[in-house]
Amino acid sequence: MSYGAAVPSSGAVTVLQPLPRDGIALRPDGLLASWQRRNATTTLPHNVEQLETHGNVDNLRRVTGDVTGAFTGFWFGDTDVHKTLEAAFWELGRSGTRSPFLDGTTALLEKAQDPDGYLNSYFQVDHRDRQWAELDNSHEMYCAGHLIQAAVAAARSAPGDAAAQQVVTVARRFADLLVRRYGPDGEDGIDGHPEVETALVELYRITGHRPYLALAARLVELRGHDLLGGGPRRRRYYQDHSPVREATEVTGHVVRQLYLLAGAVDVAVETGDSPLLAAVERLWDSAHDSRTYITGGQGSRHTDEAYGDAYELPPDRAYTETCAAIGSFQLAWRLLLATGHARYADEMERVLLNGLAAGISLDGTAFFYTNPLQIRTGRDGSNEYAPSQRLPWHSCACCPPNLARLMASLHTYTATGDAHGLQLHLYAPGSFRTGDHAVQVDTGYPWDGRITVTVSLASAAPWTLSLRIPAWCTGARLAVNGEPVEATTGYMRLTRTWRPGDRVELTLPMPAKTVTAHPRVDAVRGTVALTRGPLVYCLEHAGLPSALKGLVFEDLYLDPAAVPEVVRDSEAIAPVLLRIGLRSRTGEPATAVPYFLWANRGPGPMRVWIPLANTESEKR
Amino acid sequence: MSYGAAVPSSGAVTVLQPLPRDGIALRPDGLLASWQRRNATTTLPHNVEQLETHGNVDNLRRVTGDVTGAFTGFWFGDTDVHKTLEAAFWELGRSGTRSPFLDGTTALLEKAQDPDGYLNSYFQVDHRDRQWAELDNSHEMYCAGHLIQAAVAAARSAPGDAAAQQVVTVARRFADLLVRRYGPDGEDGIDGHPEVETALVELYRITGHRPYLALAARLVELRGHDLLGGGPRRRRYYQDHSPVREATEVTGHVVRQLYLLAGAVDVAVETGDSPLLAAVERLWDSAHDSRTYITGGQGSRHTDEAYGDAYELPPDRAYTETCAAIGSFQLAWRLLLATGHARYADEMERVLLNGLAAGISLDGTAFFYTNPLQIRTGRDGSNEYAPSQRLPWHSCACCPPNLARLMASLHTYTATGDAHGLQLHLYAPGSFRTGDHAVQVDTGYPWDGRITVTVSLASAAPWTLSLRIPAWCTGARLAVNGEPVEATTGYMRLTRTWRPGDRVELTLPMPAKTVTAHPRVDAVRGTVALTRGPLVYCLEHAGLPSALKGLVFEDLYLDPAAVPEVVRDSEAIAPVLLRIGLRSRTGEPATAVPYFLWANRGPGPMRVWIPLANTESEKR
């Protein structure tokens, strides 16, 4: 049985399927596995502690009468408990490690739940009169959605576990209430913050109970008919300005938009609704083609945490919330499963290794809420909305637990299977198996572009091993048992009767490159970004040679004649750095670090897009 | 006696003085006079109507019991009544026209005022318990400040008028209350929104009552000592992060910062506090040198309506509120009076003719709240925060009445006097007199750079006629009675024994120019702006030739070889347009319009900074 987040049911119209729970074992020396280990040993315990410190768990204990005192934090703070519970269940499934948070919280949720299934610590104690009365902003279904996703993780990770069964029971009670209130026999209502749609489809997938799917489909369809009210800007903010099927571009609050589209894909594949899937693909295009940063980040405006106009991509005021990166990754995964198109895996890789990974510190205990591509002063190091320093927690702490649940399930996104064989999407060392087919992957990716895939298990019949050739790569080389095979972008599909020991060697050349943006991106005209392979690099103050540190960061220009040079240094902050000449008083070269690793050596200025010296002399 | 806004007392340490009330008579055919006429005949009546429609006046009638119903609009909505009253009194002083709004409103204010002097329709009816309890956000002193400024306009414009005397009485009662509550014998308290500081100094100036000045000085000093509370971002927002004397750069909410500095200048000149004046000049430098748009607009961030970092000047997300332009104009005026430095008059001219004038439609009945320098789609024409269409009123309607009060007193900012003679700062046709010296100015400025100044009245003793040579101008030519005189930037000071009929001819060459921004301004690298004389021009969709209208606006590039050509067309939207070649499919030239006149021919895309075609091919 397939395992992970977003597992299509057997009746779904889908191209790919996640692998079974034991189908993926990442080797500890890989980058992704190191993130998962850090998440388990550091981030998850850190987050649990923060939830206690900031009162999120106590808010639920107020419902049960176990503590007194005032509600603290945002009214949707329950979700951070739910997301942490989800992370704990994924971790239980991944490593067998049982977080102490898991049992206590599950029992607390059951105790706090109303007899009719309602569960929301903000409304249950102080605001009973407003329950269900302010769907535009109450986040009640949004909170329910995250509870349901914790239950889905529990059911998939530990089906026989008592706590897992308990949280499924709690989630179903709430979902049944939603079906009664807002299902076909109930009233028309949608939540200002989408999330419950994808959760309900997933709950249907683990239970087979079709009313959950029907409600999810209904909620997707009801959106865009002014049920939430508000003026034009507000309606665009929560995507209630247009039905999903008719919308022509992504708009408004980025996380809401992405979660909504994730739910729409889930509904589309489960109901075979190809026009709905096509609508989501069209909207994904509008996001990807003109509203996505080179880091994979989305969200150009602080105001409304929103998409900007097409090509409005300021590096300094980029909002690019960590949760938006997670939402983009999860949406692309769903579209990949539904269509099998490599572009979705390309985008997963880009956002994961850049905009998403930047959200967490090297030590796993501090987080960015926003991930801009330029910081001028770094003075406001601790300002959570214009940061040059990750913080242990945020006033609105959606990102840290969101990162934890993603990291705990990250391995499940790396490969898939279908009737014809196995597909490798995100390269990491480890073993991958579907049914009778298994391979071993050896690679130092993303620091090294050489990937060796060794067949470890094969049936007698021919099957297809598919390897993604990333769109960023030119000149990929492929050899099967030493025999060269021509490689093309997209998936390289190798169909044959494989034998154990067969060896595929894929080489993805990773020269350091300078990249320019689309000419319509006004904000970074006359600049280049440094990249190598899937990684975007940046200059940060901490990495400047001392001779340059006294200069104003904005006075540093790339020497147009300089070619970035790859520097390997296993002792440095990253195994691979890029050295490039700067036009400055000293002419000294600077060393660029992977964007996702910036701000781990102290706060300060940073920039991804670096001006070319010749643009400086363009004055007339 | 000097007349206008911000008139230093006889004891003030100041360099220049405004002219007397009858010292300036603008001729109707000039641009500034046409704005004043439009303001009197159209904007002021329009605003009065809007105040009735939107309940601002009824909010005050609720206090007197004349109407019932709920309070409407923002809690500081009284200010829009006060600012409109101020405008009406300036207009009475300028043209003798008595707005019907004037007497009724003055009587209403007196009737609504509490016996102790308190007057605030939000707190008086529904929120007595919160009176004076939330100074960080209550705007109570801010509202008092605008009431006081209405009284100052009344006292200066119509000293013998009963209504004028009545509003002065009302304002003094409130000011006396402020002195009792927050003066040296009262508590330490400041308002989250500065404004009352400059108002109190002005009230001192018309009454001679020193406690008003002392309170103003005290409020300036108390700021920056965490009286308002809040975190670091909040404290910067309302400039409570640092005492004015110690601040090194402008920060936070732009209008608050500018109003605070205006008050600080007023305090400094009245108390002879030269360190305080120097501190304001230093802060003005930080705004002017790195946080001011080419249009004179200030405010780079929608979030907090705030200044950005140095050189953070995005054209598309420029906030550049109309009220900030007004605040910048008023601050520069105060600094001009205090120091006599031409750079302040240069900035007054720049912001007035560009960022400020853009805030109002050609017909005087619609207004921009924000004034960005680039609009990509123009689709959200009616969105008040990302506009391509001026609106008749705004939910927060601070700008329209603020424009009206400035326009009604605009002539008073054009020239000054001192012991040595007369200074002309803003060129407009009309007559200007101080004491025994008078001149007649003939000019088509800003469309035409020729200015003829004819002496119409002169004493037998030598005196100095000073003419500003704007910093934007190179090659200015000056002749006195046909004799060439070498002209330099700054003030050209012509000292002689003038005789009636003496004629000074100043020619300010106004070629069309392309201008580049400071290289640290990342957001507009590789682009140029078109200017002529003091005016910034822009391309707008409505002005494109039909062959270009079908193109995406962002695909238009300036042909680097093209030189802007001046097009004179008295039938067009502006007498002078600039034509320049664009790199496009058709190669057709487009015509640029003055920025302040954009969006008068329908909503749509617009841009001030236009990319050069060669930056398009910079890809590597």
Give the biggest sheet of chain A.
10 strands, antiparallel
Oligomer: homodimer
What is the molecular shape of chain A? globular
Query: What CATH architecture of the largest domain in chain A would you give?
Result: Alpha/alpha barrel
Name the biggest interface: A-B, 43 and 43 residues
Count of DSSP helices of chain A? 17
Number of domains of chain A: 3
Please report the first level of CATH classification, the CATH class of the largest domain in chain A. Answer: Mainly Alpha
The poorly predicted ranges of chain A are 615-620
Binned, the helix content of chain A reads 25-40%
Give the structural class of chain A.
Answer: alpha+beta
What's the N-to-C terminus distance of chain A? 67 Å
* Strand runs of chain A, count: 22
Give the mean pLDDT of chain A.
Answer: 94
Radius of gyration of chain A: 24 Å
Kindly identify the CATH topology of the largest domain in chain A: Glycosyltransferase
What fraction of the residues of chain A are assigned to beta strands by DSSP? Answer: 15-25%
Protein name (chains A, B): Glycoside hydrolase family 127 protein
Domain Non-reducing end beta-L-arabinofuranosidase-like GH127 middle (chains A, B): 422-510
Domain Non-reducing end beta-L-arabinofuranosidase-like GH127 C-terminal (chains A, B): 513-611
InterPro entries (chains A, B): 6-hairpin_glycosidase_sf, Beta-AFase-like, Beta-AFase-like_GH127_C, Beta-AFase-like_GH127_cat, Beta-AFase-like_GH127_middle
